[in-house]
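Key result, reporting period 2: structure in, sequence out.
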């Protein structure tokens, strides 16, 4: 029984080490993303906007922007109808 537990522990340790190795590179990405989201530097907001503007053609080509605009219009119409019902 102890031998089976030892094998299981070794396998878990190997999987954990492998996962840690795979995720190690993402640590830097996560730190940078955290800094951007907290706007720790004055140039982050303009840099985000420039990046977003560069992505717009690709997003529009795949219909993503149209999809979300349509969703927003539907939600606005729902809210307007609710407001009209409330006022009646």
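The corresponding designed sequence is given below.
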């Amino acid at each position: 029984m102890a031998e089976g537990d030892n094998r299981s522990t070794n396998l878990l340790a190997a999987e954990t080490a492998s996962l840690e190795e795979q995720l190690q590179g993402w640590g830097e990405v996560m730190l940078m993303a955290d800094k951007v989201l907290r706007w720790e530097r004055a140039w982050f907001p303009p840099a985000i906007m420039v990046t977003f503007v560069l992505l717009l053609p690709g997003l529009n080509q795949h219909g993503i922007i149209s999809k979300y605009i349509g969703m927003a219009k539907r939600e606005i119409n729902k809210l307007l109808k609710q407001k009209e019902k409330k006022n009646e």
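The two ends are 75 Å apart (CA to CA). The helical segments are 2-37, 44-61, 64-87. This case is discussed further under Risks and Mitigation.
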